[in-house]
Design a protein that fits this description.
Elements: H1 4-12, H2 19-28, H3 31-46, E1 49-59, H4 88-101, E2 105-110, H5 117-133, E3 137-141, H6 147-155, E4 160-162, H7 169-172, H8 181-193, E5 197-199, E6 202-204, H9 210-223, E7 227-232, H10 249-262, E8 267-270, H11 282-285, E9 291-293, H12 305-315, E10 318-319
Parallel strand pairs: 1-2, 1-9, 1-10, 2-3, 3-4, 4-5, 6-7, 7-8, 8-9
Helix pairs in contact: 1-3, 2-9, 3-10, 4-5, 9-10
């Protein structure tokens, strides 16, 4: 059996584990033991800084893509609220309010494969306003944008672009057929070429295997992604995955710990589905996680920011802009 303690020390000294070693961790270790060592890796590389961000659903529903988990797809009847791009004043007030509560990053998220030209101009105007009025890090999540559009976002004050891989390349076609995994990787590379950091992760509980999760982690490593959101499926009635059972909490903890072994120096970020956890993610924050999305998600409820900050500080973290 693998000596997890020895492997942890090797990683702390710069060793990068292989896919085979990650698979061995998945199938020969238990969640509780692995989480202890994942947290040692997190503390060694990232210290006790914790990165907290919030999002706003800037444009909701009527998405042309058929991602099987999504409440906003036009392909499914989910009765989700639909509206066009939010007015500037609503977005600015949301960002300002979040900053006053202690949040250091904020993202506008819009439904759809990509923004139309006039929508891109509108969000860039909002980002410029935010950059001038609110000292908060700006993220953006607007689908499969072109390099030119990504460059325009950076020039408007955005510093990080979000585009989730969602799962492994092998499993992706079971989740979405209206765009490809290669499309997603191309956007990530274009965002980096435009001078943006990248936030990219995925969803577990889609029906994928542990091998699929590990493959996604290694793809993120190869792409040089430094902020990795880990979502857990919250099955939405009306979507093809509405009947998926919820993952056991130990399996979620085990998965997050393996991600930390593969990605020792990233912001490993709890994201969608966290409100379903019995402790709102506290065990995960003691098992290798050092970032989270706070507040409400896009179409589901989240956790109040003041509750998150209290929990994070009680564990011993310090909420900072850069973890």
């Amino acid at each position: 059996m693998m000596n997890i303690k020895a492997l942890t020390e090797k990683i702390k000294s710069g060793y990068e584990i292989s896919r085979e070693e990650a698979l061995e961790l998945a199938y020969t270790s238990n969640a509780e033991a692995l989480a202890v060592y994942a947290d040692k890796i997190r503390e060694h590389f990232c210290g006790m800084d914790f990165n907290l961000c919030t999002i706003i659903n800037g444009k909701s529903g009527r998405c042309s893509e058929n991602c099987a988990y999504c409440a906003q797809s036009v392909w499914f009847n989910t009765c989700v609220e639909e509206y066009p791009l939010l007015p500037e004043e609503i977005v600015v007030e949301s960002a300002s309010s979040n900053y006053r509560q202690g949040v250091h990053r904020f993202s506008i998220v819009t439904s759809g494969k990509q923004l139309e030209d006039e929508e891109l101009d509108a969000v860039c105007h909002i980002y410029r306003k935010l950059a001038k009025t609110t000292p908060i890090g700006l993220c953006a999540s607007h689908g499969l944008l072109s390099y030119e559009a990504l460059l325009k976002l950076r020039k408007s004050g955005v510093t990080r672009y979000h585009n989730n891989l969602e799962t492994s390349e092998d499993f992706f076609a079971k989740i979405c057929t209206t765009h490809t995994y290669s499309d997603k990787k191309a956007v990530i590379r274009d965002a980096q070429r435009a001078g943006l950091e990248v936030c990219s992760g995925g969803i577990i509980g889609l029906g994928e295997s542990m091998e699929d999760r590990i493959d996604m982690a290694f793809t993120l490593k190869q792409l040089g992604v430094r902020s990795v959101p880990l979502n857990v499926l919250n099955p939405i009635p009306g979507t093809p995955l509405e009947g998926n059972g919820r993952l056991a909490y130990d399996e979620i903890i085990h998965t997050a710990a393996i991600f930390r072994f593969v990605l020792p120096n990233v912001q490993l970020r709890l994201a969608g589905g966290r409100a379903l956890f019995p402790d709102k993610g506290k065990r995960l924050m003691k098992g290798g996680v050092n970032a989270a999305i706070s507040g409400d998600m896009l179409t589901t409820a989240g956790i109040a920011t003041n509750e998150d900050i209290a929990m994070i500080k009680a564990i011993g973290f310090e909420v900072k802009a850069n973890a």
